[in-house]
Each structure stands twice: as C-alpha cells, then as structure tokens.
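Annotators were shown the component list below and the corresponding predicted structure, then asked to write short factual statements about the assembly.
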Amino acid sequence: MYDEYPSVKIRLRVDGKHYEVYVKPYERLVDVLRYKLGIVSVKEGCGRGECGSCVVLMNGELVPSCLILAIRANGSEITTVAGLAPEGKIHAVQKALLDVHAIQCGFCIPGVALAIKWLLDKNPNPSDEEIKEVLSGHYCRCGSYLRFIKAVKTASKYIREGRIYFDIKEVIS
Amino acid sequence: MVLIFRFNVYRPKDLDDALEILDREAPEVIPIAGGTDVLVLVREGVIRFKGLIDLWPLRRKLSFVRREDEFIRIGALTTINELGRSFLTSDVRYLGFHDLIHYFATPYIRNLATVGGNIATAHPLSDVAILLLTLNAEVKLMSAKGERWVPLENLYVGKRVLRKEPNELITEVRFREKPTNSSTSLLKFDRRKAHIMGYVVVATHAYMDHEVIKDVAIAFDSVGKPYPGRAKLVEEFLKGKPLTNDVLSKAVKEVLVKEMTRISDYRATSEYRLYLSGVLLKRSLLKVKERIQRGSLG
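Structure shown to annotators:
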C-alpha cells in the first residue's frame, strides 16, 4: 500500500549523550526523541508548531521538534529539559518555576522551561514585554501564565547572582 | 507516527545538486525550507508528494542579508530571527522589518520559518511577502537551466499558486535601496497581540517631502484576490498630496472601497475586515510619517 523507504543512520548528541539511531525519512525529531530514545519530557501537543510543548534547543536555538524532520537534526546538539542541569542538580529556571508554584499539570513545563532558558541565555535581564513575547508561543491550559512571568524574573535573579544549579535535595525533601 | 503518508527526503550537497534533483523529480518532489508550513499541510492531508528536498543544508550559502550595488539582498533561507538580527531592523527606512519580526508567529517558529518559504507559501497571511511587495522586491528563480529575476508582484496567481515552473527554486530576494526621508511599517490586527494571523495585515512604504507624499506603496494581505497584493488606486490617489486627515479619510472612504473586496469567515465578517483595513491603512501611514520625522522607531 505504501512505498517503504530505507532507514537512514543519524548521529545526535542529546543532553550530552551520543546516540546513533536509524530513522525513516518521514519521521520527525519528536518521534525519534520520544519513541526511539525514550526521552519523554519532550511532549507532543498540537503537532503543528502552535502550542510549544515539543520545543527543544537545537544547537542552542529554540525550535519545535514536531516540525523538524529527524534527518535534518543529523549531527546536531540537542538539549531537552532533562539536560539543563547535571545529574542530581536542577537549573535555576527549574528552581524558579518550583519557587513560584507555576506547575499544575506540568504538560507544558518542559517547553516553557526551555523557552525561559533560551530567553535568559540571550538576555539575562528581560523586560515584561520581552518575557511575554517569548512565552506567547506556549499554551498552558492550567493558566499559569502570570506565574511564568514571575518565574522568569526569579530565574533571572538567580542567574545574575551566579546561582545556576541547585542541589536537588535542597529543593525536594 | 502521525504523519499520514510516507515520503522520501533528499539531502542535497549543494545548490546545484538541489536544482538537479528538482529538475529531475519535480513536481512529485517539492522543496522544503523551514517546514513550518509544509509539515502542517502534510499533517492535515492537504498536500501529497513522493518526496521532499530538504534545503536546510544550503543555509550556509543562502542565509544572508547584505547591501550590494544599490540593492538590499536577502537569501531565501534567511530565518525571521536572522532578519531581526540584521541591520534592516535598525535602519529607519526598513523599520517595517522590525514590526514584521515581532508580529510573526512565535519566537520558536521564527527560528525555522524562512523568507523564501514565506514567499513560496503564497498565502494571504505571508507577512514577509506583504512587506516586500511595498518595497518593489524582485525574486530570483533558479533552475538547472538558468536563472531569472521576476517582480514579486507577478509571482502570485492564486492562493498557494505561484507563476513559476515546478523545477524553479526561489533562492534570493532583492529590492532597491530606498531614499532617505522614507520609511516602512507593518500592522496586523487580531484579538490578541501575539501569535496571530491577523484579520487584516497592511504594510506601507512612503517617501515624503515634508508633509507631501512623493511616493507610496501599500500592500494588504488581500485586496480583491486571495493572496497579498497592492492597493494601486489608493497609492495613485495619495501621491503628491499632503498627509492630512481630510486626505486620509477620503482615501479610505472613497478610494479604498473601490478596489477592495473582503471575505467573511469564522474569524471576521467582510464588513468588519473592510472597516478595519481603512483604520489600519490610516494608522500605518501615520506611523511611517512619524518614523520619517523622528528618524527612529516611533
């Protein structure tokens, strides 16, 4: 019924780990991350680049993994929310989201955390307008938008104070 | 796997390789730039093809914004965020690009969506194309057999239909440097501020001598046809006139309605869209005037 196309081998570095994986040409990055590498912090929401749940940092740029064909990611460096901090630690962005109780159901949080990280990498002290613009592409159906803005400011403060990583035991008892 | 059919993907080594594949396989094989439109259409089952040519490997060559011999040249694979980081957003003549990048979809889409892709989409909401229309931009079409420049305006014949051969690829856009005392603006209106398609989109370029409009170009998401176009009658009416409230309201009430027809859909009625087009037309002209007078973002 369908034409079947041969798999192609691609190399990826995800959260510091090297992977070699066979992908079909029509597979998207989100499929490969979730179903082949088991990295399920990357959520698929709308699948059409509107909700922001599936975003990852690809070579440092924020991109929706549902609109990227996996073979395009060959040779690239991908960061998901799990790779923001080393083992046993959490990143200032994650700490800030916990601080302000921004997380209810949590489905959008991996995307939101990466968007905040991307914003703060470019601009360590963003204005309200800049924060709103970057978060405009992230749907949160629990409605935690105002807390996200607070979280960005808290994270920005941590990062400017040089407190990038927090020990996970200090945060969660 | 949620994509509803299977296809092959070609990864060209360079531009010649891409053009050669396109020449051999088009129209069964189509080019994909950022993919923010193509992959959505695939998911919705709107288009079908046997394969895609992934143009991303050509970015090193086709992603640029530069001044050259009286022209501003923009590579087709320049992303919207790259446009935002270029000199265009700080030059008062091209401040329309500043508006454009802030209105355009969301920040992560701006990292993927490209100038060439937005033009090739040929949709009423191709914001980049609407702005480029006011700058009298030309598009470079390349194929394995040669290349040609065509005015962007002549490229569109229908919604998602381009007047070009299937084996031709959009590789570059250029427009002539604009004179000092001119500026551009782009306005979009919707219920929200961000992440919008816009009920109405309007872009304006005007060249003014004090109060008098020497030259003006106005483009809407749709004037009478379902793709971006210029409001030629309004332009003719405004040329040589001072930008006063009288002239503006005449342009909207008497001239614009002669050439513009709008559609109704679930987002807005035609009456509302027509009314809004007039309001935004006035606002965009006043914004351009303010920018010229201030010499900066206004």
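Statements collected:
1. Chain B has three domains: 8-55, 63-176, 195-294.
2. The longest strand of chain B covers residues 200-209.
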